[in-house]
Amino acid sequence: MPSVLPDGEPVPEDGALPATALAGAERRPLGFYLHVPYCATRCGYCDFNTYTASELRGSGGVLASRDNYAELVAEEVRLARKVLGDDPRPVETVFVGGGTPTLLAAADLGRMLGAIRDEFGLADGVEVTTEANPESVGPRYLAELREAGFNRISFGMQSARRHVLKVLDRTHTPGRPEACVAEARAAGFDHVNLDLIYGTPGESDADWRASLEAALGAGPDHISAYALIVEEGTQLARRIRRGEVPMTDDDVHADRYLIAEETLSAAGFAWYEVSNWATSPGGRCRHNELYWRGADWWGAGPGAHSHVGGVRWWNVKHPGAYAQALGEGRSPGAGRELLSDEERRVERILLELRLAEGCPRELLRPAGAAAAARALEDGLLEPEPYGRGRAVLTLRGRLLADAVVRDLVD
Questions:
Q1: Where is the Radical SAM core domain (predicted)?
Q2: Which of 270, 274, 98, 284 lies closest to 190 in space, CA to CA?
């Protein structure tokens, strides 16, 4: 969740949505994202809306601390119930992200999930995920999470090499994420993800291979691997600008991606989104698929984004301002936008082309269709799906995904 929010039109104080947003809602999946903005320390590459202080006050002196945070989120869930009215949909996915959600007590995360269960109900087979810092959990905590209803967990591993973790300002000890996977399995978690980052300054091919092998050896059923993006305003960006560490170029990123694909495929993982691999369809992150397919989700917490029926909105960024709005009975929404049919078409191409199933060619305008034909000739799109009316990236196409998308959206 980036720390800079976009502009937009005002959100009504009661959070009300236009009737068009709720039309046909019963045919779309509904999920919840719950943002926990607290971190013990700030990683050098992080540009997310996070805060290291244990408590923060808004301009009106309203307290937003770890101690009362679960109740604040529960209050926004109750607001969501009012806004969505008699919407009959049970919630299909819940994802708790941050920050470091596991800085809160497991009971608090359970209380937030309980508010969703009480207000909306949870679908049979609901996926309930939380992110976790490896140093912030142990066997007892994980058992409490599982008892509270969580069945999927995502650990931030990033690298198995100490010097790489140091550049990223990650505080966990190498080997701890792998141990967490075993502890999560013992606690009864059905699905476990490890997040990896490649392209960190000073990382070698050997370092990256070692991280992949360590992750695979831990036995997760899902691995996410992301190229490091150096965001302006971060500590890492300042270090690169001062010449303290080198910038990694795009060719290195491409080489590391190919290493990831080769290593993960050989271990029985299949890609289903450009940066995500799973051992089976059941191991995929259904919550992220909900984003990529343009379904409905409500994001609760400071800076959280939501989308329902073509209306997208985002909350105030600061925890104190968030607490103050809810305390005054107002929506914490900072701004919103109503997406046009054309904007929704473009977003479908942007997101669905990154999936293993690709996007329907019928979404393409003439210029985009011509670009798709060229991409096919250049080996960037798979021939067989193309013949069935779908644009699906080849491995080479995945390396150039951003460029292919730009061409296909005209």
A1: 24-270
A2: 284
